[in-house]
Amino acid sequence: MSIDKFGSLEELKQFFSNGGNPWFDAEFSPQTHKIVEALGAKGAHLNKWWVRTSMDWECPSCKRKKPQIAKLDSRGYASCQLHEHHDHMKDIVRRLFEEISSSKKQVVATELAERFAIRTSFAISAYDNTVICADCNKADGLAKLKIKAHPDFSFSPAEIGRFVKPRNNQEHEIDAEIASVIWRENIDVFDKRMKLAKYIADQAASDTHWYQPSNSSAKEVERAATYRFNLRGLNSLHYDPEKLLYNSMPFKGNHSSWRLKPKQQTKDKPTAGQIAHLSQTRGRSWTRYDNNWKCPCCERSKYDCLKPSKNNPWVFEVKSILAHNTESDSFADDIKVCNECFNAANHLGREAIEEVKEEDPTIDVYFPHSLIAFEELKSVIVARPHSSHLINNELAEEAVKTAIERIVDENYNNSPKHKAILREKHLLQG
């Protein structure tokens, strides 16, 4: 798979004029032209966040789209502005750190101490830095003034959405009563966060912190590698450039080892308290499906699909597979299955891919589970509660042979449906 790169500004402008949307915006995009025309503006005044977001971007606070956000400014231009809304805890900690350190008879704080203070401040921030529209960002400050909230407090993007009254192409009205209720809901926790900020600043100013920097962090190594891969064009050769450089399964004949040595069945069962904890802390999938849900593949109940993991006592995950449709020689629509059925489908598909790659290293399939038909998957698994599936190896061998034939006989990555899926996932342009 290759994504074409623009060779000049003219090519980029031409792409936009042809209706293209490469997941970002521009002052010469068709939508920006329409905004200028609709507002009767002299031109458009954009900022970096406007062009860094797609044309169909929606403000997470007021839920307006870009054509509803833009408004005529005092100079007669269409103001197209998005802002990075942030919690003030970082600024508070830095200010307190400066005050406490400079008030000491002998300053002992170092550059490392300041870095500790800034890094730790994120732990007491109420929300992540979030891009919102300029009107929502302004409404945060206006609401605090109206209700006389603490000047260092800031409403989260979701809270802003509760008290603004959005209007198309105009600044928001503010419901001060709702804003006041939200502030009262936050006072106790905000006071605790301020005390934590003071403690962090004090530790840093006293140079009694615990931060030890690395000479080169894993993130820095990853960032440098990504830059070098892109610089040499590896990203245009493969959606995951690293896979061009090494064989993740170098030991010949081990492609089926995942199913030949099954893990022992889990004897433990989750308690009601553990399930409640899961639901409250990491239960996005658990709460999405009702208690009558069953995996359509292994037919285990929702409860039986709970399984221990390395990091958590119990997890529950539902994932999508694109099972092969034997009638149309294409993909079936997304089928939601339990994590163990997903893993089995993916392993079977990957096993077939690795076998073919021994003859042709250039072969790859973006979605290994798309090589396995749903009925084939159902036939090979032997379900166990709270555990990974056992695999019927005889039937699995047949499923892998059939998958190999599909790879050889059909060009999966170039099929129309596959291309459509790749575009949806932003892996393919055009």
The chain-level mean pLDDT equals: 89
Q: Number of folding domains? A: 3
Number of strands: 13
CA distance, first residue to last residue:
12 Å
- Rg, please? 27 Å
Largest sheet: 3 strands, mixed
How are the strands of the largest sheet arranged? 1-3-2
Looking at this protein, list some descriptive labels.
430 residues; mainly alpha; 3 domains; 3-stranded mixed sheet; two-stranded antiparallel ribbon; 18 helices; globular
What is the gist of this entry?
The protein is 45% helix and 8% strand.
What this model shows, in words?
This protein has helices spanning 9-17, 30-39, 48-52, 66-69, 89-103, 111-121, 134-147, 157-163, 176-205, 218-231, 234-237, 257-260, 272-282, 284-288, 339-357, 374-380, 393-409, 416-424, and strands at residues 44-46, 71-72, 78-80, 82-85, 130-133, 164-165, 173-174, 318-321, 324-325, 330-331, 335-338, 381-382, 390-391. α5 (89-103) runs parallel beside α9 (176-205), α7 (134-147) packs across α9 (176-205) and α8 (157-163) packs antiparallel against α9. A hairpin with a 4-residue loop joins β9 (324-325) and β10. The model is unreliable at 425-430 (pLDDT under 50). The strands form six sheets. A three-stranded mixed β-sheet has the order 1-3-2. Helix content is 45%, strand content 8%. By secondary structure, the chain is mainly alpha-helical. It is globular, with a radius of gyration of 27 Å. The longest helix is centred in the middle third of the chain and has 30 residues, at 176-205. The chain folds into three domains: 9-80, no CATH class; 85-205, no CATH class; 247-424, no CATH class. It is built from 18 helices and 13 strands.
